[in-house]
Amino acid sequence: MIDFEPTDEQRLIRETAREFCDGEIVPRARDMDRAGELDPALIAQLGALGYLGAIVSEDYGGRGLDHRSYALIVEEVGRGCSSMRTVVSVQTSLVCATVERFGTEAQKRDWLPRLCAGEALGCFGLTEPDTGSDAANVSTRAERIEGGWSITGQKQWISLGTRAELALIFAQTDPELGRRGLAAFLVPAAADGFAATDIRGKLGLRAVDTAELVLDGVEVSDDALLGEVGEGFKVAMSALDSGRFSVAAGCVGICQGSVDASVAYAADRRQFGRPLAGFQLVQELIADMIVDTEAARALVWRAASVKDAGRRSTLETSVAKLFATEASIRSANAAIQVHGGSGYVDDFPVERYLRDARVTTLYEGTSQIQKLIIGRAATGIDAMT
Ligand code: COS
Question: What are residue 331's phi and psi, to 5 degrees?
């Protein structure tokens, strides 16, 4: 059963995140989007507030919060700016939570306190030019050398790739083993042979960098192996269970932001002698957005409750991610409709909401992949492989 009433602590966490979003993120979101650059001071603030390690144990510099609280934070950051939300999702879910789950004590002590504090950023290197949905088909190679590994390959669409100090790299150790040959490595971006190039010209998420990574014989020691050799696919999928959840929570923020902007604009703007809010067709647009927002939030909270119970949440996460991401596109698009011509320029956040929402049904598993995961769970038949 989901309890829809936040606890007092969760309420306080939401209020603090809301104040931070409205006071610090919202006023800078348009400029960061136009400049194609995040304000580093804001990233430092995310770290200081504990938002980059919300679900990581306090032993390693995190806040040790439950997943509902994490969702409340991510929703607020996502309402303000999806590029900032991407920093939270990648750092917390894909990198920190994964290092905490699969890392050795030494790896956790080495990396987590600085990552949680925002003193270092991390990125998640799974996708390649020829490997997207078919995540097991990684062609980056890790070859055994004396005392460690030599890694060679290319990674594509890597959020935070040019800023990260640490790259979580998935590589094949033995092509004959397929997914059972995959391994995950903690690769310092400063290593010889590691290069990151920014990908320009994106529709949305303009303020956060998206990179192509090239690893040319990057040598790492045995200590860099995260989990066991052959465990890489499990590490990646487990990371994505958390990453997809975080994306979904961020999309609830886009939905809520679309509602808030539309209600305010519809009350203010007058046509035919009355506010837009007085027209039934405008109310219909707003009502549909509200239903999408509430449903997306409930699905995120449901996934959170499964995670907090310590159970695997792949199915619940896919349901939440599929619905929330698609809902965010619908809501942002409807919000532009409410705003008319004003919604087509960046005086209001809604055109950015739509541009930023669009990637969410692509990355961390397309909507089609989420449907195949849900369909397989329902029917017991694998329609993917
Ligand atoms: N946690 C732990 N283990 C997991 C897991 C998870 N969330 N998901 C899968 N596994 C394990 C399974 O238990 C299974 O282990 P065994 O072989 O020991 O039984 C193994 O991993 C394979 O699982 P599964 O059969 O579900 O894998 P598939 O090859 O069917 O996965 C899909 C196919 C399409 C679901 C997967 O490749 C996928 O999610 N693709 C999308 C990738 C993606 O999101 N890319 C974006 C990257 S970030 S932008």
Answer: -65, -45
Predicted local distance difference test score (pLDDT) of residue 93: 98
Q: Are residues 323 and 205 part of one domain? A: no
Same domain membership, residue 84 and residue 74:
yes
Domain region containing 151 = 123-231
* Residues in Cβ contact with 49 at an 8 Å cutoff, skipping those fewer than 6 apart: 16, 17, 20
- Percent of the chain whose predicted confidence (pLDDT) is above 90: 98
Asked whether residue 84 falls in the same domain as residue 167, the answer is: no
Length of the chain: 385
Mutate to test the pocket of ligand 1, among 131, 134, 233, 235 (most ligand atoms within 8 A of CB): 233
Q: Which of 128, 316, 326, 364 is catalytic?
A: 364
- Region at 24 (left for phi over 0; alpha for psi -120 to 50; beta for the rest): alpha
Amino acid at 266: A
> Which residue CA neighbors atom 5 of ligand 1 most closely?
237
CA distance 117 to 44: 8
CATH of the domain at 288: 1.20.140.10
pLDDT digits (tens, 9 = 90+) for 52-109: 999 999 999 999 999 999 999 999 999 999 999 999 999 999 999 999 999 999 999 9
Mutating to test ligand 1, I would choose from 234, 321, 367 the residue with most ligand atoms within 8 A of its C-beta, which is 234
pLDDT score recorded for residue 385 = 78
Ligand 1 atom at minimal distance to the Cα of residue 135 = 37
- Ligand 1, residues at Cβ distance < 6 Å: 126-127, 133, 135-136, 233-234, 237-238, 240-241, 312, 314, 363-365, 369, 373, 384-385
Q: Tens digits of per-residue pLDDT, 339-349?
A: 999 999 999 99
